[in-house]
Design goal:
CATH superfamily of the largest domain: Immunoglobulins
Structural class: mainly beta
Number of helices: 5
Helix content: under 10%
CATH architecture of the largest domain: Sandwich
CATH topology of the largest domain: Immunoglobulin-like
CATH class of the largest domain: Mainly Beta
Largest sheet: 6 strands, antiparallel
Number of strands: 23
Oligomer: single chain
Length: 361
């Protein structure tokens, strides 16, 4: 690696199952080329798994292969043919500064082409990389080529991570490196915390970003899932899930639940056909050191049979039982919590799910 001198580009999905940001950062750090002009080019794509859904990525006009980005073609035109504009370069500038209840950070952008978009994303630094939900915050252009943004501090006792993503008018997307901030080092009181309980009715524009097939989970022939109008209990949309298959939601943060006094989870479900469903599972997933995953299964759901009538499940934390032998390796509401997962285990059985919410007394 230390002898590598060729131009380099890496497009990293931040929530990828296999290639976590620290490993990508180590690769970048071990390539000796430096400076503008992009001997090293990178994008950390928040909320992406095994794809790049930013301009120039694996979706949109010009995509001919699900595993290829259009940016690759421009990179080769630039580096090999000298016929395309250089990629932008984005980097953090200065030190994070406390600003009331927020933290101000700045980043600069150098670009041959005009900048089409610039956004900042932040997440709780204690969570497993693959389970995070990166919240989007719009920055302000404060001087030529320099942007500023205020990051909310919801849990001062936990690290706050952030990254800026920039796209130019030629559909090249790059990012800063991932910044890591310890709020306590900026004078925040670790005892002051704010909690917001997660709720999902599947009506929002970001639902399709946050709910995904769960990698390395159940996926049998004919199994599938989607967000559909037919699955709505109220409103316009809900989840449809057919076995054998699992889907899950990222960003279930224990710090939020604990700070808000969360006591459990509510949801509605029913069979999507005339046939009863007896293999529906609801699980909360914890990932501990060395990527070890542990499932807490809601026993009242596991014991239930769904019919064509909507059924509400009011689940407390005591209803979730850690799967496997021996004692649970951690508490359920720990820093490793990150995913809410639904599974239909029997081939062909179908369910509708809607109106999910974590609750407090």
């Amino acid at each position: 690696m230390h002898d590598l001198s060729a131009d380099y580009m890496i497009l990293a999905a931040d929530n990828d199952w296999f290639f976590w940001p620290p490993a990508v950062e180590a690769t970048i750090d071990n390539i000796p080329a430096e400076g503008p002009g992009a001997e090293k080019n990178w994008l950390f794509g928040p909320n992406d798994y095994h794809a790049i859904r930013y301009p120039g990525g694996t979706i949109g006009p010009g995509v001919t292969n699900a595993h290829r980005t259009t940016m690759e073609l421009r990179f080769m035109d630039w580096k090999l043919k000298g016929e395309a504009a250089a990629f932008p370069v984005a980097q953090a500038v200065g030190e994070p500064v406390r600003d009331g209840d927020d933290i101000r950070v700045r980043f600069s952008v150098e670009s041959e082409l005009p900048i089409a978009s610039a956004s900042v994303y932040w997440s709780g630094g204690e969570m497993p990389w693959r389970f995070r939900w990166w919240e989007k915050v719009e920055p302000e252009l404060v001087e030529e080529g320099v942007y500023e943004v205020r990051l909310p501090v919801t849990h001062p006792e936990h690290r706050l991570d952030w990254v800026a993503v920039v796209s130019d008018e030629g559909d090249a997307s790059v990012s800063t490196r991932i910044g890591r901030i310890e709020p306590a080092e900026l004078g925040f009181n670790p005892q002051a915390r704010n909690g917001q309980l997660f709720a999902e009715d599947f009506e929002g524009d970001l639902t399709g970003w946050r709910w995904r097939w769960t990698p390395l989970a159940k996926r049998g022939e004919g199994g599938s899932w989607g967000i559909r109008e037919q699955a709505a209990r109220e409103g316009q949309k809900g989840i449809w899930l057919r076995g054998t298959y699992s889907c899950g939601c990222w960003g279930i943060r224990a710090a939020d639940i604990v700070a808000a006094g969360g006591t459990g989870l509510k949801l509605w479900a029913k069979s999507a056909t005339e046939e009863p469903v007896d293999s529906f599972q609801v699980e909360l997933v914890v990932e501990l050191e060395h990527a070890a995953r542990h499932m807490w299964r809601a026993q009242p759901v596991a014991d239930a049979t769904l019919t064509g009538e909507w059924q509400q499940f009011d689940l407390t934390w005591a209803d979730f039982v850690c799967q496997g032998e021996g004692e649970a390796p951690s508490e359920l509401l720990c820093d490793g919590l990150g995913e809410l997962r639904f599974t239909v285990e029997e081939t062909g059985q179908e369910v509708y799910i809607d109106d999910i919410e974590f609750v407090a007394e």
